Amino acid sequence: MNATHAGRLPFFVYGTLRPGEHNHDLFLRGRTLSEEPGRMGGIVLYDGPGYPYAVEEPAGVVRGELVTALPEAYGELLGALDRLEEYVPGDPLSPYERVVRDVTRVDGTAARAWVYLAAPAVAARLRAHGRPVPGGDWRERRRTP
């Protein structure tokens, strides 16, 4: 049984969970089956306090990785990522929402994946006063003057 048939979607990560970023080793090392580059349309990254927020905006494109968890680690990883993102289903105070969106792989094929997007109140503040990450790539932010 593959992950999607069991209701176990991969994750699209775009910030501190990407390879080379500080949360990657803490949360993903040893728990993934695969990690591959991808992009997600319809979202824009905004700079946050040491991490980005993804906000739904039709013209945006964000670069990140499509992460498939090891089947035996899926439940533990899902819970750990929800805690990291302070996501509690149905809680209006959660800064993020975990939603399903399409990711495009480098080869052009699509996959459905979980992604953490800024919750509505956070997204509204960012649209009004936030600073977008140029090019939609969190890794590149350090190289942009």
Automatic annotation (TrEMBL):
Q: Which UniProt keywords apply?
A: Transferase
Q: Does the keyword Acetylation apply?
A: no
Q: Name one GO molecular function term.
A: transferase activity
Residue stretches making up the Gamma-glutamylcyclotransferase AIG2-like domain: 11-139
Signal peptide feature range: none
Pfam families to which the protein is assigned, alphabetical: GGACT
UniProt keyword Transferase, yes or no: yes
Q: Which SUPFAM superfamilies match?
A: Gamma-glutamyl cyclotransferase-like
Q: Identify this protein by name.
A: Gamma-glutamylcyclotransferase
Species of origin: Streptomyces fagopyri
